[in-house]
Amino acid sequence: MEMWILVVDDNTTNLKVANTILGDAGMKVSCVKSGEAAMKFLQFNRPDLILLDVHMPEMDGFEVIAMIRKNEDLADIPVIFLTADNEGETETRGLHAGAMDFIKKPFVPDVLLLRVKHAIALTRLQADLSREVENKTCEVLEQHAKKEALFIQTIIALSSAIDAKDTYTNGHSSRVAEYSRRIAEKA
To answer: Is 113 within 8 Å of 22 (Cβ atoms)?
Structure first.
């Protein structure tokens, strides 16, 4: 499955470098130069991952990721911040905002490729796991419903057998069950 990456950076050189590195690795790459352009792009497109520059004019990376995380349709797209900052505070703030990772600029090609591949692989594994849990939960609920129906049928059969054995107590079990149901409704 082809990986589709959106690169958001106000620096044309960074866009070209990222496009070349990722494109040469067989990935589909879309590049935009601003946070506003990224949000417009995301209205009609859903990439597998977003590489997002932290420092951009008008709308910085923190504002963009906040908008992405607030949108139900986009919130699960992994975001990796791009930054030349060496400050731990920037990384901490980005991780709290929902970034999956950070890549330092200028890019080291192997690091960029590995982090992008690992982020997408992890995201896909999480999605597969969620689907598997949902499927197994449905299976368990179906099995539980079948077992419950079989249990009720067994109880009805046993009470019918007891009632049929003695004409004096015939219908006693069903009357007790009906009284119990009415009491439970009132309670």
So the answer is: yes
Q: Are 29 and 23 in contact (CB under 8 A)?
A: yes
What does the block give as tokens for 104?
A: 């330092």
Q: Are 10 and 91 found together in one domain?
A: yes
The residue written with tokens 């409704």 in the block is 185
Query: Same structural domain for residues 126 and 141?
Result: no
Query: Structural domain tally of the chain?
Result: 2
For the entire predicted model, the pTM comes to: 0.73
State the sign of the Cα–Cα–Cα–Cα dihedral 165, 170, 176, 181. positive
Strands (E) in 96-155, as ranges, are 101-104
Do 138 and 122 belong together in one domain?
no
- Summarize pLDDT for 115-135 with one digit per residue, the tens: 999 999 998 898 889 899 999
